[in-house]
Amino acid sequence: MTTEAAPPPSSAGTPPASPAAEEFVRVQQSAEFAGLRRAHRSFAFPLTVAFIAWYLLYVLLSNYAGGFMGTKLFGNINVALVLGLAQFATTFLIAWLYSRHAAAQLDPKASAIKARMEAGE
């Protein structure tokens, strides 16, 4: 049993050319790559800071505002439980937003850079 995959049909049995290290450095220093990094950072950094602040607020409220966190909203459901579940909801929301951002902003730019590198431009 072999572990090697068959080459894609369009490559006619020749492996794609591997860019040299100098090519990677050149692309990394290009304005196009800087735009890709900027697009990623402009989304990731603010949301990371916001989520960490939200999480720390929850932890601080849990430690120092026990009376507030223990306030019953209905039945046995209190503020602490609702805010704790909101942490999970926020995590999934951020992941969904990032996947949309990546598909719309990051993937097209990265694919263009990759295509130019593979073409040897």
Overall spatial form: elongated
Distance from N terminus to C terminus (CA atoms, Å) equals 38 Å
Estimate what percentage of residues fall within beta strands.
under 5%
Low-confidence stretches: none
- Rg, rounded, reads 24 Å
Structural class: mainly alpha
Strand segment count: 2
Structural features:
mainly alpha; 72% helix; 4% strand; 121 residues
Describe the structure.
The chain is mainly alpha-helical and 121 residues long. Helices cover 72% and strands 4% of the residues. The protein has helices spanning 21-28, 31-64, 66-69, 79-119; strands at residues 72-74, 77-78. It has a two-stranded antiparallel ribbon. Strand 1 and strand 2 form a beta hairpin. Helix 2 (31-64) packs antiparallel against helix 4 (79-119). The longest helix is centred in the C-terminal third of the chain and has 41 residues, at 79-119. The chain is elongated, with a radius of gyration of 24 Å.
